[in-house]
From TrEMBL:
GO terms for molecular function: DNA binding. It comes from the Bacteria. GO terms for biological process: DNA integration; DNA recombination. This is Recombinase. Signal peptide: none annotated. Residues 116-289 form the Tyr recombinase domain.
């Protein structure tokens, strides 16, 4: 007979984070999970008026937590879903370890996310955006992200040795430790040469590095994009992820087949790639007229 282990929620989340670290999850991922677990700990210990064992957390507690995230913290549906997804992962681990009898979090439904128009930029708009950014480092990073389709976290975590100009390749770590090799395009190559020769001024091991901190943060990148969009007078929300979506959509518009785009994005399924594509009515009109 297996002896039950009574585990406090605070300890369970700590051990799970240690497990994720041993699985080589990125620092950004670990920080995100740690924040999610800290927020839930504040909520659940307030409910129980003190430390709580993870096995005592009920489905009702978790559903009330979703209400709390909406009404008290004013979080959007996607953000609430990310918080509860982190909790599901923890409870799945706790069930596997024998700390709880069943994963009550698996029954908690996600908040409904309203469909909105995916924002993409045309090739001309990308050029306008690049020209509007006056900081050479960030200008290079925008060009890099648009020409590779990499996520911001993958791009800023690249080290110098990951970018091999002689071989014409980039070795990048994408989601969950998956490694992909990207070929440097003819349009991107001279930009990277110029960056290393004349722009980069840092002893940091990271490829994209400021002189002061040795890193570029996603928040700083997105703030600069918002400022550029405001100066351009555009009425659209542009983030670093918009560059990845624009990369995929413009490849499609230029005749690249979906399986190739999926491969370039590092997706395992074409269905995932479809989420990134912004197929407008003009694209559909042009497509039907090709028959």
């Amino acid at each position: 007979m297996v002896r039950r282990v009574f585990m406090l929620y605070a300890d369970a989340s700590k051990y799970y984070l240690q497990y994720l670290s041993a699985q080589e999850r990125s620092e950004d991922t670990l920080e995100g999970y740690e924040k999610d677990y800290r927020v839930f700990r504040g909520f659940i210990e307030d409910v129980f008026n003190g430390p709580v064992y993870i096995e005592d957390v009920t489905r009702d507690n978790l559903e009330n937590y979703m209400i709390y995230l909406k009404e008290k913290r004013k979080l959007a549906p996607r953000s609430r879903n990310r918080y509860i997804s982190s909790i599901r992962s923890l409870f799945e681990y706790a069930e596997d370890k024998g700390w709880i009898e069943k994963n009550v979090a698996s029954k908690v439904k996600d908040a409904k996310v309203p469909e909105d128009q995916k924002v993409t930029l045309t090739e001309d708009e990308v050029d306008q955006l690049i020209n509007e950014i006056d900081k050479p480092l960030l200008k290079t990073l925008v060009i890099f992200m648009y020409r590779t389709g990499l996520r911001i976290t993958s791009a800023i975590n690249l080290r110098l040795e990951d970018v091999d100009l002689d071989a014409g390749t980039i070795t990048a770590c994408i989601k969950e430790g998956k490694i992909i090799t990207i070929h440097i395009s003819e349009k991107l190559y001279p930009t990277l040469v110029e960056y290393l020769k004349s722009i980069r001024d840092s002893d940091s091991p990271y490829f994209f590095a400021t002189k002061k901190t040795g890193r570029v943060s996603p928040a700083y990148m997105n703030a600069q994009l918002r400022a550029a969009v405001k100066r351009l007078g555009w009425n659209k929300k542009v983030t670093s992820h918009t560059l990845r979506r624009s990369f995929a959509t413009n490849l499609l518009r230029n005749g690249v087949e979906l399986p190739y785009i999926s491969k370039l994005l590092g997706h395992e399924s074409v269905k995932t790639t479809m989420i990134y594509l912004n197929i407008l009515s003009d694209d559909l009109k042009e497509a039907i007229n090709k028959l």
